[in-house]
TrEMBL record:
Residues 198-219, 332-352 are annotated as: Disordered. This is Uncharacterized protein (DUF58 family). PANTHER family: BLL2464 PROTEIN (PTHR33608:SF6). InterPro entries: DUF58, Ig-like_fold. It comes from the Archaea. Signal peptide: none annotated. Residues 224-396 form the DUF58 domain. The chain crosses the membrane at residues 31-58.
Length: 453
């Protein structure tokens, strides 16, 4: 039977939890010693009296080690030399499906031995352990250390480690202490790599931005010189020409316009299945790429929106750059990756086939980024129809079939290649995305400087 130390349970000390349990072993050993002494006196056996010294030794040891020591330093390191992740301060970033190595070390900084130390690291709830173990049991003498190493598979989102738990028993086993230590150099794992410097083609709207337009206006690139008109800014006057001819003229610069972009994400049932040989479903990869692309374009001043294509109909967030549009984009994509629909009215519900939905949802000048694995013919003709509507089209297609080795996977891969070839023939820019490639490189290729309109 165990008993708890009321003064210790629930005490916030250092990192938090600190509990001590006592098992009444000293009383048991004491009773055993008395019984042996009594039996020895009754039967006149010196051997029994001497044997009583053994349980008495445990009683004495327990008296000097009532509460187990917790002088342990806990350190966690995330990311190994061969891991495809990047670190920025206390944040480690990687792509979905990547494996990251975690090493946790416990060091006995006390003066006595830890004869029975149990360690359980606080693995992030949504990240599975794919190699090694986050637990161990060991003995540590003063100054000794023990290291636990395991690998986590990255999944979309931001993940923090839970509190680790340490447990140590006293020398005689009469008490057990459980606590959560402070963690040296703790980190957060972020699985949503940034995509920087997204260049765009020539489809523009009337908002100011960084894509040169074929008209004059405010900008930095020379466009033309015209006759001075009353009210023209003084800084626009061509003073060199005035010095030569004494005639006033005004310099016009090429106007810069922003580009409206709509990220179309295929989250139908066929995209949410994980094919043999793939670690993630296509929908998870597409949602990741779409979110990073849309948010980066918003940061650059390009109004961007999202359309998620479900089995029946779609949900959309209209293009914009404001904080509300950003939050709605994140919320919609987070739910869509799991095949769900977000609660509330953050997205507009649309009904019809993909072509009908996009005809109603797309602004006339919008660029379309289509994220789909094309593992079936559900969107087979969509790039062609979008091009016919005079939209610049970029197709980003995660190849989730390449890891399959059976006949069905090979046949499916050939059919997918044919669908992508048809999209290229329509004039769309197509990126066949090997999931082993980093997301940043894939999106850079998809939105390169080439112009396909």
């Amino acid at each position: 039977m165990t008993s708890a130390d009321p003064a210790a349970i629930g005490r916030e000390d250092g990192a938090g939890r600190d509990e001590v349990e006592r098992f009444g072993a000293r009383e048991l050993y004491g009773a055993l010693a008395l019984a042996l002494v009594g039996a020895g006196v009754v039967v006149g056996s010196p051997t029994l009296v001497v044997a009583a010294l053994v349980p008495l030794a445990f009683v004495a040891a327990g008296g000097s080690d009532v509460t187990p020591d917790r002088s342990v330093r806990f350190t966690r390191r995330v990311g190994g030399e061969n891991d495809d992740v990047s670190a920025d301060g206390s944040t480690v970033s990687g792509d979905p499906g990547d494996a990251v190595t975690v090493r946790t070390t416990v060091h006995n900084v006390g003066d006595g031995p830890l004869v029975d130390l149990r360690v359980a690291d606080g693995v992030p709830a949504d990240l599975p352990v794919v190699a090694g173990t986050p637990r161990t049991a060991t003995r540590l003498d003063p100054g000794e250390s023990a290291t636990v190493e395991y690998e986590l598979e990255l999944r979309r989102g931001t993940h923090g480690f839970a509190d680790p738990v340490l447990r140590v028993r006293s020398l005689d086993g009469s008490a057990r202490r459980t606590w959560t230590p402070a963690v040296d150099d703790d980190v957060t794992i972020r699985c949503a790599p940034a995509v920087d410097d997204v260049p765009l083609g020539d489809g523009t709207n009337d908002r100011a931005g960084d894509v040169p337009a074929d008209e004059d206006g405010s900008g930095v690139e020379f466009h033309s010189v015209r006759e001075y008109e009353s009210g023209d800014p003084v800084r626009s006057i061509d003073w060199r020409r005035y010095a030569r001819t004494r005639e006033l003229s005004t310099v016009e610069y090429r106007a810069e316009r922003s580009t409206t972009v709509v990220c179309v994400v295929d989250v139908r049932e066929s995209e949410r299945r994980t094919p043999a040989g793939s670690s993630l479903p296509a929908a998870a990869l597409s949602v990741d790429a779409a979110e990073r692309t849309a948010l980066t374009l918003m940061d650059a001043g390009h109004p961007s929106g999202v359309v998620c294509l479900y089995e029946r109909g779609a949900l959309s967030v209209d293009p914009g750059t404001d904080a509300t549009t950003r939050e709605r984009t994140r919320t919609l994509l987070s739910a869509a990756g799991e095949g769900d629909r977000p609660e509330g009215s953050i997205a507009r519900s649309r009904h019809g086939s993909p072509a009908e939905v996009l005809a109603a949802a797309l602004p006339g000048e919008a660029h379309v980024y289509l994220f789909s694995s094309f593992v079936d013919d559900g969107l087979d003709t969509l790039p062609e129809r979008l091009r016919a509507g005079n939209h610049a089209v970029r197709v980003v297609s995660p190849d989730v079939l390449s890891g399959g080795t059976d006949d069905a996977a090979r046949i499916g891969s050939i059919a997918r290649d044919n669908r992508l070839a048809r999209a290229r023939e329509s004039g769309a820019r197509v990126v066949d995305w090997d999931p082993d490639r980093s997301l940043e490189l894939v999106v850079r290729e998809a939105v390169g400087e080439g112009r396909t309109r």
